[in-house]
Amino acid sequence: MSPSTITLLFLAFAIIMFILEKIPLGLTATIVAVGLNLTGVLGTSDAFAGYVNSNVILCVGMFVVGQALFETGMANRIGGLVTRFAKSERMLIVAIMVIVGIMSGFLSNTGTAAVLIPVVCGIADESGYSRGKLLMPLVFAAALGGNLSIIGAPGNLMGINALNELGIQTGFFEYIWVGAPMLIFGILYYAFIGYRFLPDGRGEGETDQQHDFSKVPQWKQITSLVVLIVVILAMIFEEQIGIKLQVSACLGAIVLVLTGVISEKAALQSIDLKVVLLFGGSLALAKALETTGAGELIADTIVGALGANPNPIILLLVIFIVGCVLTNFMSNTATTALMVPIAVSLAQSLGADPRSMIIATVISCSCAYATPIGMPANTMVVGLGGYKFKDYVKSGLPLIGVSFVICMILLPILYPFYP
Count H helices, E strands: the chain? Predict the structure, then answer.
């Protein structure tokens, strides 16, 4: 049996088990990683590299930074300030999505989600609303906001590079004409319709009991907030100061433990192993899809079924759907890298302007809303929000539908196939 066939079988197994949830998500992902190694599809280093992936390190560091805000009561104080202005759950959802969406357009969308997750947990605890209602809109807004500029997500630059190589001039806000409407309509969707589909489960560590933080020294509260702000600033100016997001998060965690703001025991307990296991296993599957050609086989088979001279609109539709499907199980960056050359070659074979095809590809590869492994931020909130696989499907699929409709309407108008 070929490596690509074995990979496709493990993909099918993962999808089925993620949906049924007969065993924990992290265990399913680990079985996949071990299975890919035992069958020889991936070497040992590739199969287990995901467990020390840079995004896993980012999560670990931010778990500790976030826990310090909870331990000192600072998260609840911040939450109290916000809830004075947002008087209803829907207002909170809108406020969170606006803030996160704008920030992620100019920062890493993963980094934006990582630093704001503990703040939003504090808002939920202080307001009395469940974290499950607020965290999912946060991570979805981070992905939507990533389409506002060329630096919002790693895959954005791949699309820009492809356009530049074809001699097409691009700008910093190349995606904004589609990305901004997607963010706006995504926020409106959750404000008026989508909030009904958000799960109301209670996350890990979330209780109805109000803790008494009056005995916590004020210097600890201030330090926890200062460290968070410094970490955020370090992430904003990542390129200027030359310190990666992951290192900034870890430095923040180290400072908090060394200063005694949070104990070593509390720091270790804050690390969600479910996230680490889910990350590690799913990244092994993504690596196998990429290296064995299984991901390319899926894309080529679906697109090839359209025939030699498909209608450009139909081709655009299929490219978007294929990108959406793959990115919910592969790395967004890997999916974009796989799909962009296919989009370019298909556009050239039709003699059509490739801009709409490439932009549709990049945006579709950011629509990883339907699974907990679609993007790092999705995985970060699994435990905190008390989410199940079906919660992502129920809340994320309609958002993909909203994004799809906007792209199919705007792209042919903004970037005609045959100008």
Answer: 22, 0
